[in-house]
Write a structure and sequence with these properties.
By secondary structure, the protein is an alpha+beta fold. Helices cover 30% and strands 22% of the residues. The strands form two sheets. Strands 7-6-5-4-10-9-8 form a seven-stranded antiparallel sheet, with helices on one face. A three-stranded antiparallel sheet has the order 2-1-3. Helix 2 crosses helix 5. The radius of gyration is 21 Å and the shape is elongated. It starts with a helix and ends in an 8-residue tail after the last helix.
Length: 246
């Protein structure tokens, strides 16, 4: 038996352990790749993201790549459950954890948040999504001509609103949206941008849509999870006896 065959057989056995039979990041079944930097088993899509991680970019195919004995041992000593207990120790309930069916931008920022920025490890400081307010420029599609223009958006936990202004220094907002009416979802194909975010909300008993994007994938996902954090705060105020999970 060659070294590669022995490694492949050992990795196959490790894959059978609880938690290792699905991708550590998106939950896709039967992962065929492994991060020998982190000790996790991942799918093809997530392996592409892992290759671009700072300090954690060593990714190998479980059967076709050459594995050193020390790397196989590292995978055996770690695995998906151990990584989850470390890198997902404090994921807030509002943070959207993507599945294999979600778009690339959500998966990428989830993986970077876990392993690069270490946002969810035990004892980590408060997250940027929980600051209670967010103010910045996003590209918004015009309702009439479909042209995207830069618009200022302001999210307020205290007011429970998302406002947008046609100019950065405008005194009055063009729209005031109550966060409890918002449904935010990524729609890259509909918006024709990989970072495309759709905001659906109610106004005067009718459904309205705002189509947005930002060139930075981190920025647009931060907005998405900040909105979810404010929505959770609103629900906690409205239902003080309920737990965060409820």
């Amino acid at each position: 038996m060659t070294l590669n065959e022995r490694a492949a057989r050992a990795l196959k056995e490790i894959l059978r352990r609880p938690g290792n039979d699905t991708c550590a990041d998106c939950g896709a079944a039967d992962p065929e790749w492994g991060s020998s930097s982190l000790g996790v088993f991942i799918c093809l899509t997530c392996s592409g993201i892992h290759r671009n991680l700072v300090d954690h970019a060593k990714v190998k195919h479980l059967r076709l790549s050459r594995w050193e004995d020390t790397e196989v041992q590292f995978m055996a000593e770690n695995g998906n459950e151990a990584a989850k207990s470390k890198y997902e120790a404090q994921v807030p309930v509002y943070y959207y954890k993507p599945t294999h069916e979600d778009c690339q931008v959500l998966k990428e920022q989830w993986i970077r948040a876990k392993y690069e920025r270490l946002e969810f490890i035990q004892g980590k400081k408060p997250l940027v999504y929980e600051e209670g307010t967010r103010d910045g420029m996003l590209m918004k599609r015009g309702r009439d001509n479909g042209q995207f223009l830069s618009r200022r958006f302001v999210l307020s936990e205290r007011e429970g609103t998302l406002k947008y202004f046609t100019k950065y220094d405008a005194k009055e907002p063009k729209a005031i949206i109550k966060v409890d009416t918002i449904n935010a979802s990524f729609q890259p194909e509909k918006i024709n941008n990989p970072n495309g975010l759709q905001i659906t909300y109610l106004k005067d008993f009718s459904t309205r849509n705002i189509f947005l994007y930002h060139d930075s994938s981190k920025e647009i996902v931060d907005w998405f999870n900040s909105i979810r954090a404010v929505q959770l705060h609103y629900l906690k105020v409205a239902f003080p006896g309920a737990s965060d999970i409820e």
